[in-house]
Every structure is written in C-alpha cells, then in structure tokens.
Amino acid sequence: MGYHHLALAAKDMKAVHDFYEGVMGFELVKVEIAPVMGGGWGKHFFYRMDGDDSKWNAAGLDVLEIDHNWCHSVYTRDPNGNMVEFCLTTGSFDDADRARAIAALDETEMHASPAPAMMKHWLAKDAV
C-alpha cells in the first residue's frame, strides 16, 4: 500500500515546497484552487511521496526510524519545527487491536505497547 498524499496548511508555501520537494524528495504533481468555507480561497498542493529518506540527513535533518511491529515510520522536523511522521502500514488490524485501543481511551496509568522491532536515530552530522 502506497501513500496517497500529504495535506497541510502553511503561511510560507514556498519554504514548505522547497522542503517537501527539495529535501524530502516528493514531487509536486497537482494543485487544486477553490473557495473555502467562511470566505477567501485556498490552494491544495499534492506531492507524490516516493522520496528516498537518505536525502534528509544530507540536508541537515536528523531522522528517527522506527519499526513499530505493524507499521514502519520515519520522523523529522519541517521548516516550522513541527515533528512530521511518514508511516507505512506493514501489518493488519484485528478486533483485539480495536478493543485494546478503545480500552486505552479510559486508562489513567501507562500500559506500554510492545517494544519496537527496530529504532534507529540517523543524525545529520553522520551523513558527511
């Protein structure tokens, strides 16, 4: 299963574009421009997400990679300092997963999930 698209709001779309296309390696493929509720208008940019995360370290970004046992995630920070996660589902969900998630809604004490199968912090300084 591949990613479909990334949607976000930004004050400086040019900086965000430079980050997502130039650093992340995603290709800008389409824009939808339309009125928005409450007045005004907006632009919805679509990026194809087949990038290679090895470019991220070379651009000075630290990357955290985690195999959560049911999905594989990579995390980094965008130009606004927001932590962003890109996640690919590698397993499936069943009724027990849903029951566990619903039970967690009311829990007031930590009941930790199983440890990740893999966790690696890729530091930008190691990319030189």
Describe this structure in words.
- The chain is of the alpha+beta class and 128 residues long.
- The chain has one domain.
- The protein is 20% helix and 32% strand.
- The chain has 3 helices and 6 strands.
- The strands form 2 sheets. The protein has a 4-stranded antiparallel β-sheet with strand order 5-4-3-6, with no helix packed on it. The protein has a two-stranded antiparallel sheet with strand order 1-2.
- It is globular and about 45 Å long.
- The two termini are 33 Å apart.
- The mean pLDDT is 84.
| Structural class computed from helices and strand pairing | alpha+beta
Distance between the termini: 33 Å
Average pLDDT number: 84
Helix fraction by DSSP (H/I, runs of at least 4): 10-25%
Give the total of beta strands. Answer: 6
Beta strand % = 25-35%
Q: Widest sheet: strand order? A: 5-4-3-6
